[in-house]
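Below sits the subject:

***
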Amino acid sequence: MRLVIATCSVDYDGRLTAHLPLARRLLVVKADGSVLIHSDGGSYKPLNWMSPPCALAERAPDDEEAATGVVAVWDVSHLKSDDRLRVLLHEVHHDTEHELGVDPGLVKDGVEAHLQALLAEHISTLGEGYSLVRREYMTAIGPVDLLAKDAAGVSVAVEIKRRGEIDGVEQLTRYLDLLNRDPHLAPVTGVFAAQEIKPQARTLAEDRGIRCVTLDYAALRGLDDTAGRLF
């Protein structure tokens, strides 16, 4: 990755035209070929950019450009379109390259697999007397996240989401329809468990006799002592 801090102006020509007047900016050239123009504001979004596949040609300014104070020109062209990005550098304050290597990717904390493992370990979160039958209980249309039994010995199918929406309720409904055809399991009730459940999803679930449970991820991990709270 190449990081350049420069006083520059930028012109984009493609599906639309855009101009960034002369100012100090961060220019990022990534190993995948993309070029991004950042300011010191605007959150994470670049002011302008060129996505790969593209080619960057760096050249000396012509006489007309040099007369305006330009010391270098970046011509960035997209390889599959007519989009062009031209950066006129008037002063380069910093220019370094760094080898970052292969990135392992984002590992999210609190994804559904983590929630499933934690809820399986603390199945009593769903109610006193609950016991786990198994995780990833396979059906003909896919695995149910958890199959449990309540205090009365009734089978319970549990669908777990980070954000509970209508699609998740529909998914659990299909599992319940299938599981209730199995005489060894029926009757099977449903629990829709999520860190956040949308009001429409809650309404649909409750209309279908499915219980909704909001999960506290910190409490499941043992990071939040709910018993010691004042509020």
User: Anything to note?
Assistant: The two ends are 48 Å apart (CA to CA). The longest helix spans residues 166-179. The first strand starts at residue 2 and ends at 13. Residues 106-110 have pLDDT under 50 and may be disordered.
